[in-house]
Design goal:
alpha/beta; D-Maltodextrin-Binding Protein, domain 2; six-stranded mixed sheet; five-stranded mixed sheet
């Protein structure tokens, strides 16, 4: 009997000791649990010339300064690692992927009103774009995207330079562009813009551009200088014409499902970090375009000015036609036009 009693006493004490040792460990793990977010970019993992990587680095920096580095862990996936952009934007809608850095253009496939920002020669500079957005031009688009696609815009930045045409031959006039197969985003507004400029506009996913240029399926593409450099498109086409037909806004996308799941205590600090990161990325974007043009020149690319007024005149009817088809875009376009110098 005494032996059984002693054994029960031993087991009771052992259980208590084990519980006292293990319980704090579980509690510590619960307190240390971090929110894990996936951030996608189609661009190269370049910390200087690729807008996705630049934004990611800025976001991590500001999360750390806001004391959230241990509570929010953002993993970065460049180079289409999570899929082509059209697949990623749909994954954001479903909450499968949390965040994406890309131009506004890709989301126009989900909510056509976003395509307002893709109209040719609508913006005259990135600074004017910021002025227009501060005056309310971005709000209807943000609301439409949230309502129609379950995607939240955390803030806006700049693509790293205006979009221009890189081709296998010099392009100075619309006649020079005639018949050239120029890659555009798989977006009807940008495709129409390049068609009006004179090109045989060819929609294609970003990840397929390089091989299409190599194979001669494309004669060129339209994009900003840092992207041309970071993605090494200069290896397949050597003439960059500064058409500057589009000052595309860079969107900081987030799935509203992911945002809603975030602890309310984290949201304020996270949003603050996201907006500060966008501000830093805008500053970087303005400074890096000229450097990218220099780097392209060193890689053997000929940078050419062109008859921008001739291209602009051809594209001008696009905006009026867009308004006719989408009357809800008129107040947005009116604000943008009112901020032009």
């Amino acid at each position: 009997m005494a032996l059984r009693k002693d054994r029960r006493h031993f087991l009771k004490n052992t259980t208590a000791l084990t519980t006292s040792l293990v319980a704090p460990a579980f509690i510590g793990q619960a307190q240390a649990a971090t929110l894990k977010l996936k951030l996608s970019s189609s661009q190269a993992n370049d910390p200087q010339f690729a807008n996705g990587r630049v934004y990611y680095d800025n976001l991590v920096k500001h999360l750390k300064s806001n004391g959230l580095a241990d509570q929010i862990d953002v993993s970065f996936f460049p180079d289409n690692q999570l899929g082509q952009e059209i697949d990623v934007i749909n994954s954001l809608k479903l909450g499968v992927i949390d965040m994406m850095i890309s131009g506004s253009s890709i989301s126009a496939n989900l909510v056509p009103l976003v395509g307002t920002f893709d109209l040719g020669y609508l913006f005259s500079s990135f600074q004017q774009q910021t002025k227009a957005f501060a005056s309310g031009a971005a709000k209807p688009v943000e609301e439409a995207l949230l309502k129609g696609a379950n995607i939240r815009i955390l803030d806006w930045a700049y693509n790293f330079g205006s979009r221009s045409v890189l081709a296998r031959k010099p392009v100075k006039t619309p006649e020079d562009l005639a018949g050239l197969k120029i890659r555009t985003l798989p977006n009807p507004v940008i495709t129409e813009c390049l068609r009006l400029m004179g090109a045989a506009a060819t929609p294609l996913a970003f990840g397929e551009i390089y091989t299409a240029l190599q194979a001669g399926v494309l004669d060129g593409l339209e994009h900003d200088p840092p992207t041309m450099f970071a993605s090494k498109f200069y290896e397949t086409a050597k003439f960059y014409s500064l058409t500057r037909h589009n000052f595309s806004p860079l969107a900081i996308y987030m799935s509203d499902l992911s945002f809603t799941k975030m602890d309310s205590k984290l949201k304020e600090g996270f949003l603050d970090a996201a907006k500060k990161a966008a501000t830093d990325t805008r500053t970087h974007g303005l400074s890096i375009e000229k450097e990218a043009l220099t780097q392209l020149t060193e890689k053997g690319v000929t940078i050419t000015e062109c008859d921008r007024e001739a291209f602009k005149k051809r594209v001008l009817p696009q905006t009026d036609n867009f308004i006719k088809n989408r009357p809800e875009s008129k107040p947005i376009i009116d604000i943008i036009r009112s901020t032009q110098a």
